[in-house]
Amino acid sequence: MDLSHIVALALLQGITEFLPISSSAHLILVPSLLGWTDQGLDFDIAVHGGTLLAVIAYFRREVAALVADGLASLSRGTMVGEGRLFWAVILGTVPVGLAGLAFKNEVETHLRSAAVIAWATLGFGLLLGLADALGRKVRDEHTLTLRDAVIIGLFQALALI
Length: 161
Prior knowledge:
- The protein is 75% helix and 0% strand.
- It is mostly helical.
- Helix 1 packs antiparallel against helix 2 (23-34), helix 4 (60-76) crosses helix 5 (83-102) and helix 5 (83-102) runs parallel beside helix 8 (146-157).
């Protein structure tokens, strides 16, 4: 893979990750439209990991406090400070991690096409519209239950598409 392609896709990922659009779709569509070779799922995971590390570095104090509260909650047997949010993030991450490991080959071979991205975007857009119309309107991290976190994680696993 050409260094200019790596830099372009890494910048694209970093910018689009924080917009209400699919940064993963852009990592597939841009190379396809420009006639570049598909960089593969491992590259996509690496640039997502880079974005995660940048966010952790930027919010290092908040992340450290969150981790401390989570570990304190574990050692004390009761939720301390933001401990519930820490464990919600951990539990919400498990389903997508397991799905990614279990379906890596299928994602890499069958789900990296413009047609799949188009249909998935349409379908998930409809689901989000339905959730917005039917869901509770006032939610924050203080009302999030661990069950909610697992459900969010299960739906986040669909983002592998």
